[in-house]
Amino acid sequence: MKNNESQDKWMSRVLEGIIDTSRDHLLITDGEGYIQLVGDSCYEMYGLEKEQLLGRNVIQLEKEKVFSPSVTRKVIEARTPQTTMQEIPGGKKLMVTAYPVWNEDGSLHSVISYSHDLTEILELKHRYESLTEQLKQFETEIEELREKNNEGFVAVSLPMQVIERLIKKVAVVDSTVLILGESGVGKNVIAKEIHRHSRRAGGQFVEINCGSIPEGLLESELFGYEAGSFTGAGKNGKPGIIELANQGTLLLDELGELPLTLQAKLLKVIQEKRLQRVGSMQYRDVDFRLIAATNRDLEKMVKDGKFRQDLYFRLNVVPIQVPALRNRPEDIAALIKLVIRTLNERYGMDKRLDPRATHALMQYSWPGNVRELENVLERMVVTADEDVITPQHLPAEISVAGEEQAMLEPGIASISLKEALEQVEEKWLRYASERCRTTAEMAQLLGISQPSVVRKLQKYQVRST
């Protein structure tokens, strides 16, 4: 430097450069609290331009709630470095640290403060703690369910708790129950629960899917047959499903698929509690509890002439409508835990789910209901080489469905809070870069300044389109 004046200008320019390029927001006041220097990020932080802050006193700005409390005021009063949490307009929270700078005579020359926006970190911490607490609650509820349910019945959600209470009421009587719901919701599990709590629990629980047996064979499967009653009949005859359920419970699943010709014969058996085998003139007494299940709209089928009205009235004594799994998400975590434990016991394994995988499964809509959940879990358990099942083991349809949700609500992972925040920040940047043409558009989408977008793109080496 040729002289002190040029050196002062050089130092001033360097100081301004440090303030403008610092990742932390810097603000410098004189010894009385009047702002002398402030970075370009002041608008992003306080909603005010640099010119609106320069020369203003921090005490007055504190009264105007531009920032509260003023850490610079605290330094001036206490004459020591101070750190505090500060709230600014828009609900942002800053961590602010300020240091005094002294003159040679011991008087206060200036105060330098550094601010760091903690809003995203605090929100992430809150979500992390909320999800952790939720998973702990599920763990507790699942352990209670483990003691209470031996057949896979889960009732964490309110609708399923209502069904659980209804099951216990109807179990003690022999009223016919009609279970309604989408395919795969677990209608047979509810039927087994009714049988398990009933006085017939010592008898057989017999189940037949009316839609899986050809119409020509269904009659003999239901009612049985005598020897030689038709071509291919066994030489000793055979009791039907209804006979096997004597003193027990009979579940007719997918009853809506039952042909009209057999509906009349079934109605007669229900009314008279006796049946005739195919090819026999002899009546056999039967005593069974009937539970029917279907995913069809029987009422509409009656109107269309595809289902007998008298049989419908006979079956629709105690209807139970089972909600789809997507309408009772509270049950998903409990079902996951239950199915994983069952699979481990069945195959002699010790597989477990990474919390991130559990979270992704809980965000999926499960169009195939409980049956789809069981199939997906079994696929992962038997194909994963590792004992811990992570998101990379998830089927593609679940991974894709949960991708955007994962950006908003990241699961618990074995990483630090800072790393988790950086992952979320990078995902948002990539999300914005794919949808915006300029950094200005990205800034508007993300709600931050354009310089911040540029710095973050460089930090994460993300190319803007």
Write a short abstract of this structure.
The protein has 465 residues and is α/β, with parallel strands linked by helices. It has helices at 4-21, 42-46, 50-53, 58-63, 71-78, 119-148, 158-171, 187-197, 215-223, 241-244, 260-272, 298-303, 309-315, 330-347, 355-363, 369-383, 396-401, 403-408, 417-435, 439-446, 450-460; strands at 25-30, 35-38, 82-88, 92-102, 108-117, 177-180, 205-209, 224-225, 238-239, 249-253, 274-276, 283-285, 289-294, 318-321, 352-353, 388-389.
Notable traits:
single chain; 465 residues; 16 strands
Q: Gap between N and C termini, in Å?
A: 44 Å
In DSSP terms (H or I, runs of 4 or more residues), the helix count works out at 21
User: How much is the radius of gyration in Å?
Assistant: 35 Å
Q: Indicate the proportion of strand residues.
A: 15-25%
- Characterize the overall form: rod-shaped
Helix content: 40-55%
| Major β-sheet profile | 5 strands, antiparallel
Enumerate the spans where pLDDT stays under 50 for 5 or more consecutive residues. 406-413
- Give me the count of strands: 16
What order do the strands of the largest sheet run in, or round the barrel if closed? 2-1-5-4-3
Regarding quaternary structure, what we see is single chain
Average pLDDT: 84
Class inferred from helices and paired strands: alpha/beta
Topology:
Layout: H1 4-21, E1 25-30, E2 35-38, H2 42-46, H3 50-53, H4 58-63, H5 71-78, E3 82-88, E4 92-102, E5 108-117, H6 119-148, H7 158-171, E6 177-180, H8 187-197, E7 205-209, H9 215-223, E8 224-225, E9 238-239, H10 241-244, E10 249-253, H11 260-272, E11 274-276, E12 283-285, E13 289-294, H12 298-303, H13 309-315, E14 318-321, H14 330-347, E15 352-353, H15 355-363, H16 369-383, E16 388-389, H17 396-401, H18 403-408, H19 417-435, H20 439-446, H21 450-460
Parallel strand pairs: 6-13, 6-14, 7-10, 10-13, 15-16
Antiparallel strand pairs: 1-2, 1-5, 3-4, 4-5, 8-9, 11-12
Helix pairs in contact: 6-14, 6-19, 7-8, 14-16, 19-20, 20-21
